[in-house]
Amino acid sequence: MTFLSNIFKRRSSAPVARDRLQILLAHERISGGDGKDDLLAQLHREIMEVIKRHVAVDQDKVQIKLDRGAHCSTLEIDVEVPGLTDVKPGEKPAIQAAKPAPQAKKA
Amino acid sequence: MSKVLVVTSGKGGVGKTTTTAALGAALAQNGQSVVLVDFDVGLRNLDLVMGAERRVVFDLINVIQGDANLAQALIKDKRVPSLSLLPASQTRDKDALTSEGVAKVIAELRKKFDWVICDSPAGIERGAQMAMYHADMAVIVTNPEVSSVRDSDRIIGMLDSTTEKAKNGEKLEKHLLLTRYDPQRASRGDMLGTDDVLEILSIPLLGIIPESGDVLRASNVGAPVTIAEPESAAARAYNDAARRLAGEKLEVTIPTERKGLFDWLFKRRVS
Prior knowledge:
The complex is a heterodimer of chains A (107) and B (271). Chain A is an alpha+beta fold and 107 residues long. Chain A has a domain at 20-29 and 37-80: Cell division topological specificity factor MinE (Cell Cycle, Chain A, 2-Layer Sandwich), CATH 3.30.1070.10. Chain A is built from 3 helices and 3 strands. The longest helix of chain A has 18 residues, at 14-31. Chain A is elongated. Chain A starts with a helix and ends in a 5-residue tail after the last strand. The model of chain B has no long low-confidence stretch (mean pLDDT 93). With 271 residues, chain B is an alpha/beta fold. In chain B, α1 (16-29) packs across α13 (233-245). Helix content of chain B is 42%, strand content 16%. Chain B has an 8-stranded mixed β-sheet with strand order 3-4-2-5-1-6-7-8, with helices on both faces. Chain B contains 14 helices and 8 strands. At the A-B interface, α2 of A face α7 and α10 of B. Chain A: Pfam families: MinE. Chain A: Keywords: Cell cycle, Cell division. Chain A: InterPro entries: MinE (IPR005527), MinE_sf (IPR036707).
C-alpha cells in the first residue's frame, strides 16, 4: 500500500526547489548581501526601540516570527511586558506588533 | 587580446577546479596559450588535478613576495605545450595575497598568455575576491541544487559590485556552467532543470556538463578530463564550452555517453 501510494502521490521536488529559491533570492537581492539590513530587519529594530522607550523589556521574553512570502511578508514581534497592574492573574500581558510588509517581487 | 577569466561558484565542491583544468586544457588544445592560476592559498588542488603536484617549486605567493620570478614559478604542462600552471601556496595564508601583488602578477601574465584562468577558492572572502578582482569574464559553476544556486546568486552580486570592471562602470561578462547535471533525474522532476536555474540566475548559459564517472577517473590520474577521456560526454561538453568562450556560436546540448558493446565490456576494466 505504501509502495503504491508512493508511486501515485509523490510530487516532483524540482518545482518546490525552484519556488523556494525564487522567494529566498528575491529577499537576498533586496538586502544586497553586503551587510545592509533589509526592510524587515530595520522594522524589527525600530519597533523594539520604541517599545524600549516605554517599558523595560527582557530580551528572553521577546519572540520574533518572520515569514517571507513571494508577495507578502509578515513580521510578528511578541513582547511580554511585566508589571501591568490591571491584568488578572493567569493572563499574559503582551503587546503584539504584527506588521505585514508587502515586498516587491523580483523585478 | 588576452582575457582574464575567473572560475568561481561560492559553494565548494561544485567543480571549479575540474572546470578550470578542463576548460584551460580545451582552450590550449585548440591552439591558445593558457595559464591556470590557483588562488586557493592553503588548500591548493589544481596542481593535483593537473598531475603536476611533484613539480611545484615556487608558487603564486613566492612571486608576489619577490622570492621567485614568474618564469621560475610557472609549470609547463607536459601534454599540451601551450598550457601552464601557476600553483597556489600550500603553507601560507590568504593574507599574503596583497592587492598590489596580485595586480602585478596578473598584468605580467596578460602579456604572456591569451588566457589567464583564475581558479577561485570557495567562499566569498579574500581569496575569492582576489581571484575575481581583475577578471574580464567569469564562469559561474553551479550544480542543479538549491544551496549551489543560492551561493551562485551571491557570487553574481559580488561580480557586479566588487570587481575592477564593476568599479570602472564596465560590464563583466558572466557565463553559467551547469555541472553534475543528470538529465534523467531532471526529466523525472527531481532535479532543478536547466530552465529553472537559468530563470533564477538570469545569466547566459555556457554549457551543461553531465554527471560522469570520467571526471573522477581523470582526476585520479592527474589529467584534465578533456585530455584523459577526450571522447567522454563530459569532455565533449567542456570542449564545446571552451569554443563558446572563444566566441564560437554553438547550440547548447547535453552530450550523452557514446557506448558501443565493446566499450561497455572493456572500458571499466581498463581504468
